[in-house]
Amino acid sequence: MEPFPLDRLPHRSDWTGYLLDPTRDPPGDLEAYTDIAVYDGIYEQVLDRYREEDFDREEFVLEIRGAGREDPGVISIEEDLFLASSAELVAREREVVRDALGPVLDGGETVLALGCGWGANLGVIAEEFPGVTVIGGEIAEYGVTASQELNADDPRISVEPFDFHGEWELFDERDDIVVFTRGALTTLDGLGPVIDRLADRAREGELLGGVHLEQSGPHPEDTVLGLLRRRYADVRGFDIDLLPTLRGRPDVSVSHVAYDVVGANPLHPQTAIRWRST
Ligand SMILES: C[S@@+](CC[C@H](N)C(=O)[O-])C[C@H]1O[C@@H](n2cnc3c(N)ncnc32)[C@H](O)[C@@H]1O
User: Fold this and answer.
1) Which CATH number applies to 2-277: 3.40.50.150, 3.40.50.920, 3.30.499.10, 3.40.50.300?
2) What are the angstrom distances between the C-alpha of 278 and each of 40, 177, 199, 208?
C-alpha cells in the first residue's frame, strides 16, 4: 500500500468533491445506504452472481468487495490515507475482524452477527475462530438467502431473518452470546432503543457483550478529514453515535475503542468497539 495525500482525495472521491464544492450535484442518492430496499436490491445481484459460477467463498468475497471500487482505491487506516488493492483491503478487513473479536472468544461462544448483509464476514469469523458457532441475522431477504448459500458448506454457520426493531428470537436458547455488527448500527433509524435492549440483555446475563466495527464518531473537529467525515455522515443520514450512546449507559463498560481501524470509504471509517455489562 502506498500513502495517498489528503489534498488529492477529490480526484478519487466524488463525495469529497461534493462536500467541498456546494455548487456540485451529489454523486448519488444521499440517503440510499440507510434504505433496506437498496440493500436488498444489491444482495439480489450478489446472489445472482454467486449462482452464475462455482465460486470458492474467499474468492467470491474478493470479487464482490472489489466490485465498483477502483483497484487500487483510497482507503484509510488510523487517519492516514493509502492506495490499496482490493486484495489488500480484504486482507486488512479480515485482520480487523480477527483483532476485534479475538479478546472475547475462547471457543464455545455463539457469535450473533447482526445485520450481516450478504454474509461476507461469517466465513471470516468461522475460519478465524474454529471453536465458535456463527449465526447471521439480516432483515433484507436476498441478504439472508445469499448468506445462507455462500456458507452452505460450513456446518458452524447458519443465517436467519432478523430485525433490530423486531422480536429477537435469534437470542433464544443460546448461551455465551457475543453480538457482532459491522456497518449495520450506523444505518439504523433509532440506534438508542437497540442499544438499550442489548445492554438490558447483557445486564441480565443473556449476552456476554458486544463487538462492533461501526462508523462511529466522534470524528475530530480540528482536522480536514474529521470535518469531512462529520459532513459525510450528516448528509447521508448515518447515525455515528454508537460510542457516546454506549458510554451514556451506566451499566455498560466500554473496554476497547480503536478509531479508524479501516475505512474502505475513507469518509466513513470503522471504529472498533468492545463492551460488556458492568
Ligand atoms: C452497510 S450494510 C453492512 C452489512 C454487513 N454487516 C457487512 O459488513 O458487510 C448494513 C446492513 O444492515 C442491515 N440492516 C439495516 N436495518 C436493519 C434492521 N432493522 N434489522 C436488521 N438488519 C438491518 C441492512 O440490510 C444491511 O445489510
Assistant:
1) 3.40.50.150
2) 37, 16, 10, 11
Burial (CB < 10 A; 0-12, 13-18, 19+), residue 56, is exposed
Cα of 160 vs centre of ligand 1, distance in Å, is: 13
Q: Which residue has the cell 490499496?
A: 84
User: Could you report the per-residue pLDDT of 49-63, keeping only the tens digit for each?
Assistant: 999 998 999 999 999
How close is the Cα of 64 to the center of ligand 1, in Å? 16
3, containing H or E segment: strand 2-3
* Phi, psi values for residue 61, rounded to 5°: -60, -45
- 273, exposed or middle or buried, with CB in 10 Å at 0-12, 13-18, 19+? buried
- Residue 150 CB coordination number (10 Å): 25
| Residue bearing the CA closest to ligand 1, atom 10 | 184
Dump pLDDT digits (tens) for 77-105: 999 999 999 999 999 999 999 999 999 99
The single residue listed with the C-alpha cell 430485525 is 163
Place of cell 456476554: 208
For 144-201, the pLDDT digits (tens) are 999 999 999 999 999 999 999 999 999 999 999 999 999 999 999 999 999 999 999 9
Give φ, ψ of 223 to 5 degrees. Answer: -130, 155
Going from the Cα of 135 to the center of ligand 1, the distance in angstroms, rounded, reads 14
Nearest CA to ligand 1 atom 6: 116
Taking residue 193's Cβ as centre, other Cβ atoms within 10 Å add up to 11
